[in-house]
Amino acid sequence: MLWKCLIMYDGTNEYVEEIRFSEGSLVLDTHNIKSSIVSKMKYVSTHDIYSPFFFKSELSNVLYLMPGWIEVHPQTTLDDVTWDKPKRKVKTVKIEDVKVGSYTIKFNEVKKHYTCSCQGFWRVKDKNIGCKHIQGMKK
């Protein structure tokens, strides 16, 4: 786990920013530290299609977060990366009213089923199956 540390050492009046790696919670040697501010370090992957992965350059021995070529700490793991998985886009189809003879079949968006203006629709026991007009349209 990566930690972003702002550390003020003895004898100085300025904070020094350091990134430290620890397997669990961070333990600092407070021998020469006057003050410290510590928070978890998270890299953000902003690509909306591909999930994050790492690429290590053989030439410069640098670790990159891909896609995006973001240079990261050498000990970064996927636990140190935040990625919002894209939501699946669902196509919504507007269903028009259908005329069958003198009757009209409509789709109820709230209840997600069809209704028919015929008398048989109101008499049928299972409204999900519907009358003969709805059954014929579904086929």
Our measurement of the CA-to-CA distance between the termini, rounded to an integer number of angstroms, reads: 57 Å
Secondary structure class reads mainly beta
* Tally of DSSP β-strands: 11
Largest sheet: 3 strands, antiparallel
User: How many domains comprise the coordinates?
Assistant: 3
Q: What would the average pLDDT be, to the nearest integer?
A: 86
Shape type: elongated
Q: What this model shows, in words?
A:
This protein is mainly beta and about 140 residues long. The protein has three domains: about 1-40, no CATH class; about 45-85, no CATH class; about 100-139, no CATH class. It is about 10% helix and about 35% strand. The strands form four sheets. A three-stranded antiparallel β-sheet has the order 2-1-3, with no helix packed on it. Strand 1 (about 1-10) and strand 2 (about 15-20) form a beta hairpin. The longest helix is centred in the last third of the chain and has 7 residues, at about 130-139. The two termini are about 55 Å apart.
Features:
single chain; 139 residues; mainly beta; 3 domains; three-stranded antiparallel sheet; 2 helices; 37% strand
Write the layout of secondary structure elements.
Layout: E1 2-9, E2 16-21, E3 33-40, E4 43-45, E5 53-56, E6 63-66, E7 70-72, E8 81-83, E9 98-100, E10 103-108, E11 113-116, H1 119-123, H2 132-138
Parallel strand pairs: 4-8
Antiparallel strand pairs: 1-2, 1-3, 5-6, 6-7, 9-10, 10-11
